[in-house]
Amino acid sequence: MGDATWGWALIPFLVVLGVFFTLASGFVQFQFFKRMFNVLIGKQTGAEGHVSSREALLVSVGGRVGGGNIAGVAVAITLGGPGAVFWMWVIALIGMATSLFECSLAQIYKRSDENGTYRGGPAQYILHGLGQHYKWLAMLYAVSLIAAFALGFNAFQGNTVAGAVQDSLGIERVWTGLGLAFITGFVVYGGIKRIAHVADVVVPIMAIGYIGMAVIIILLNIADVPAVLALIVKNAFGLEEAVGGGMGAAIANGVRRGLFSNEAGLGSAPNVAAVAYVHHPVSQGIVQSLSVFIDTIIICSCTAFMILLGDVYVAGAADVDGVVLTQQSLVSHMGEWSQYFLTIAILLFAFSSIIYNYYLGENALTVFTESHASRHGLRIFVVFWCS
Fold it and tell me: Which of 2, 32, 71, 82 is deepest in the core (most CB within 10 A)?
């Protein structure tokens, strides 16, 4: 049921929606591409009840970039061939437009709570944009968000971290879980302000470190890069099949991985975009488009080139473990020490996703209640659930 909904209903809908927004807006994501990067430079502060635009961007980047950028990309390449990377790029460029519009809506319909903190997102713009008659839809979305992100995705991230640490460092899962629970609890109990401040420090470190490692590998194998790029394009259009299914497998796996990774159209990032302080709603929409670009075009591509430039990858391999494949590829390039680097990367990627996913759940909870008791209950549950 889940595969049918994801594969035959949600993916085509999100692709069509992204194409529509791209065409209707005159390719807005490319018109304002340079402006997206302006938020990364200069000093910024958030007004009362807000966080800065850059902090909102980094929180959403930290949320989009998770274990899937390492394990998921490896699986997509194995099952769909190198061409899956090309279709990940395409869906990211289209998804940038979707993200712009959904995050702009979050700014338009945001509301402040009893503490003066601004909140918004799909549940809020359904409620205040469509009206009280659609409160049932807002509540349905809020329940889905809590179940999928605060609980489901966080359990996956916690398990990924525990497994990676045990395999690499030999530390038992229970100790990793307790450590993760303690750090997560400290951050989420500080609310969106502390989450934003932590993301402002952690996300640049993890992104620059991972990108830097990929750049080193690319430079060490610079002579092979043109051949890899050619392979990606040829396989994407079925000119050189790497797995059974050819072009169809490449499109299916690339599009699915791209959408799952960058979350464009899923309504998650707007919850964070709403709390940013901006002078115009579309400004935050433009900024949030950049997070899709960073997640898929940059971070996912880093993993792809680490794998495709190595000699470990086997197209169509059964029961592939994405983390193991990426780890083996990294070791083949940089030596045994690099497996510890990957463990740290997975830890940071997953941690930033966990605190982001928690906030999505907290924000969705306000559709039903704004009581402090319910918020504390969610925090306690998520902290121990993700560990």
Answer: 82
